[in-house]
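Team,

Forwarding the record for the chain on the shared tracking sheet. I've put the sequence and predicted structure together so nobody has to dig through attachments.
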Amino acid sequence: MAAKAGSNDGNSIVEINVIPLVDIILVVLIIFMVAAPLVMKPKIDINLPKSSTALVDKDKPRMKVVLGKKGELFVDNQAVSLEGLTMESKKRSTAHPDTAALLVADKDATLNMVTELVDALKTGGVQKIAFSIQKK
């Protein structure tokens, strides 16, 4: 038989105490809420140059190309090499000939890195390249 708690009259308490369970769940929820923004940060910290005459065209299909100041290269948040960028631009330009590339380059990236990036995009068949900037 089961052990009786508290009294000897046979009416033992067999309920689950949910208060500690709720406390644990709330603590886990708070941990996830604090950790989520840390996981969602971008892979590269980009400092964009500023301009007061920026326009946005959201109608055309585009591929987002990110260039870090140390030469890191990402296409739509996927790390690629320069050759991989050429292959990806060929694939997208054959699927959609009017595909444009949005180049997000760190302001400390060298002209040589940007030139190689634009050359790889043009070799792949992407003819329209836009540069991303921040508004002043």
